Amino acid sequence: MTCRIREATADDAALLARWASAMALETEHKRLDPATVLAGVAAGIADPARARYFVAMDEALAAGRETLALPVGTLMLTREWSDWRNGEWWWIQSVYVEPAHRRRGVFAALYRHVAAQAQATDGVVGLRLYAERDNAAAQATYRTLGMVDAGYRILEHAVDRPAAAPQGDA
């Protein structure tokens, strides 16, 4: 498969939100609120300081015509400052490849694209991602690309927020 990687635009937000929801259901058995995910993706696309999204386009179908190139996968990058290294880790998140295009090099193309950008960007110390503990196929793919187990466990504490009050004439 021939993939071209491009930065996502606001026009991609609905597709990327659908993919994020599909990934959450597939990997974590979580149903996400579509409006929240769409708002989150749109906010990330609008502000590169929050996130950068990349889209893999299947060029095999395009035959030189952009309108026929098909989006087949995505990933999102976020940044984490490391005082230990005086630089940034780029975190790969929200990875999704359309099921019909899996095991065809789509994620590898996305990964190599961001790895090349990280290599070319001063202050970036490396790439990281987290994988579901039982997702052996994904972990094997990441190892094939040169990633190693960093030896950390991810812990979290969610902050509960009250539901937003309805907007209206008060």
UniProtKB/TrEMBL annotation:
> Which keywords describe this protein according to UniProt?
Acyltransferase, Transferase
Xref: InterPro entries: Acyl_CoA_acyltransferase, Bact_Acetyltransf, GNAT_dom
Q: Does the keyword Acyltransferase apply?
A: yes
Ranges for domain N-acetyltransferase come to 3-170
Its domain of life reads Bacteria
> From which residue to which does the signal peptide run?
none
- Record-linked Gene3D superfamilies: 3.40.630.30
What single Pfam family name could you report for this chain, choosing any that match?
A: Acetyltransf_1
Protein name, per record: N-acetyltransferase domain-containing protein
